[in-house]
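Work Package 3 (structural annotation) set out to generate three-dimensional models for the target panel prioritized at the project kickoff. During this period the team completed the workflow that converts sequence records into discrete structure tokens, so that structures can be stored uniformly alongside our sequence database. As a representative example, we reproduce one entry of 339 residues exactly as it appears in the project archive.
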Amino acid sequence: MNKPVVYLPDRIVTSEFYQGTLPAFIWPALEQLTQSIFCSQPHLQVYGSLNSQTQVWVGRSQNGDIIALVVFEVRKRTATVINQVCRIEAADLCAFAQDLFQHQPQISAIVLHAVDWNDSTLSYPVQRLVFSEDFVLSLPLSDTAYLASLSRHTREKIRYHLARSRRKQPSLQFRVVRGQAVVDADIAAVFQLNRARMFSKGRRYGMDNMEEGRLQAILHERGLIGIIEIEGVVRAGLLCTVSGTDVFMHVIAHDPQYDDLRLGFLCCYLTIQAAISARMTRFHFLWGQYDYKTRLGGKEQPLSRLVLYKTRLNMLRHPVLQVQHWVASLRRAVHIWRH
């Protein structure tokens, strides 16, 4: 541990760096601050984001409470922040940057991927690109309040499809399982439904065996799965993870044979309903521009890629970062054009 003496904003009065064997208090603190499964220890371990070179910066308040925490790795002159799909405050980012630039003078650029950023003014040169999006639903205290928050058309569609699906398929059952109650058979069934759905649309399936295995490992520890069965067979499912009181949806799928029943849409609604009953506070539909996300109350939250430089001169000393930023901008423009 190293404690440099630097000026920090009043909000953060002391800070410290850790590397190597990281103290156990870091992970619950990081998750509590970010409320993001992508910042949880299980996710970072499964995706291989943690190693002996991983570093952590901790910012503390006057009374010693942890109020800011950044996990990062350093390669030559660039620090890449591992925190993703979470909000980062401008004051905290500036404090981290100031501390890092003084503590490790060789570093002259900091890269952040997929963070919720409010476009505040920074005391350092910065490049920003809207990298992706997360559709976030703030969950009310009851299902009645949730339905009231939706449009009349959506409420009518939910009631119509629920009644129709149960009338046409009397054996239809919905269930939710969490954590250690999650079984591989349910996960595999939803993956298979997702493959079938992509194939029926003539689209490429977006997950390989490794990606499925990683998600499966996290689901066994932090999973929340919604399943619709007909005659005991899985016909629709949602694969979600939980961080604190936030739910993150990773996969939604249904059997194409039951397209007319809108089982995917219904499974999503019923899983949200279960999350409300479990006193969750937010439901993250994550990325992808799909109408059902906004119809079910999701609000688009841009996720940004930020590159912060020590000085403007340092921007010229990082041509690779400049090219990466340009390529990411081009990909984003193509993605928006296609959708």
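The CA atoms of residues 136 and 284 lie 5 Å apart.
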